[in-house]
Design goal:
about 260 residues; alpha/beta; six-stranded mixed beta sheet; four-stranded mixed beta sheet; 12 helices; about 45% helix; about 15% strand; globular; binds hexanoyl-coenzyme A; ClpP/crotonase-like_dom_sf; enoyl-CoA hydratase activity; Enoyl-CoA hydratase; lyase
């Protein structure tokens, strides 16, 4: 497939998507998000891929939705076109794990895009923010919802109401970021972690992702029941037999369903 706003590569069993609008700090327009959705769909169908990394440039993961493209929208343009949510939802439906590797700015929709991924690795240069308030708008792709779930109400309110940015260290302390990595190692470390994931049993990886996400969608008792039933179903997989046999036989497991 031809892409003009992203670069799509594979590294072994890892799919790598690099946001590539360098002149606009990777500002997210409709076409770019459509391309990310197409690339994710292709990786989802590709049996050779077990996990995905989305990254940007050294300067910016993404500095937000494209302000120029939005500036003259009327309410009806935004509402009828289901602006933002229409094509962003495709990220949520990807069953394979996605790591966001963030260097530089992840602002507005950029921060929201990172939060839609399953975990965030941040370069020590990363800066996260929800500065929409400065533009006379509010976050529109999860900033007011995923951010408080990730870092709590106090810091989410601070970021959304004052537009202040968080550096990588604060973001990790607050729970937004899984790992901080030196900038020149960021993409390699994300690919290495994705390769580890891609070496495990894919159905189990999907079950883990679904179960963790369930924690944010349901009361504890329902989440625990979902986990328990899913756990039981794992015993129907050949990969469970292989994983446990390999442990008993003191060898490395070779998972079949990758
Ligand atoms: C369009 C953008 C952009 C954006 C940067 N650029 N951010 N273009 N949309 N979101 C462009 C600039 O216009 C400029 O183009 C070029 O990228 C370099 O940016 P500079 O401002 O010159 O760089 P710098 O001084 O280093 O400042 C970097 C920055 C700043 C702090 C990231 O650009 C900035 O504050 N950007 C806007 C951040 C923002 O408000 N994001 C939220 C957007 S609203 P030229 O042609 O002049 O060189 C949003 C809503 C989400 O995301 C709703 C749901 C998705």
């Amino acid at each position: 497939m031809e892409y003009s706003n992203i670069i799509v590569e594979t590294r072994g069993r890892v799919g790598l998507i690099t946001l590539n609008r360098p002149k606009a700090m990777n500002a997210l327009n409709d076409q770019l998000i459509d391309e990310v959705g197409d690339a994710l769909d292709a990786f989802e169908k590709d049996e050779g891929i077990g996990a995905i990394v989305i990254t940007g440039s050294e300067k910016a993961f993404a500095a937000g939705a494209d302000i120029g493209a939005m500036a003259n929208y009327s309410h009806m343009d935004a509402y009828k076109g289901d602006y933002i949510t229409r094509n962003w939802e495709r990220l949520k439906s990807c069953r394979k794990p996605i790591i966001a590797a963030v260097a530089g700015f992840a602002l507005g929709g950029g921060c929201e895009l990172a939060m839609m991924c399953d975990m965030i690795f941040a370069a020590d240069t990363a800066k996260f923010g929800q500065p929409e308030v400065k533009l006379g708008i509010l976050p529109g792709a999860g900033g007011t919802q995923r951010l408080p779930r990730a870092i709590g109400k106090a810091k989410a309110m601070d970021m959304c109401l004052t537009a202040r940015m968080m550096d990588a260290a604060e973001a990790e302390r607050a729970g937004l970021v899984a790992r901080i990595v030196p900038a020149d190692r960021l993409v390699d470390e994300a690919i290495e972690a994705a390769a580890v994931i891609a070496g495990f049993s894919l159905p189990i990886i999907i079950m883990i992702k679904e179960s963790v996400n369930r924690a944010f969608e349901s009361p504890l008792s329902e989440g625990l029941l979902f986990e328990r039933r899913t756990f039981h179903s794992a015993f129907g997989l050949e990969d469970q037999k292989e994983g446990m046999a390999a442990f008993v036989e003191k060898r490395k497991p070779v998972f079949k369903h990758r």
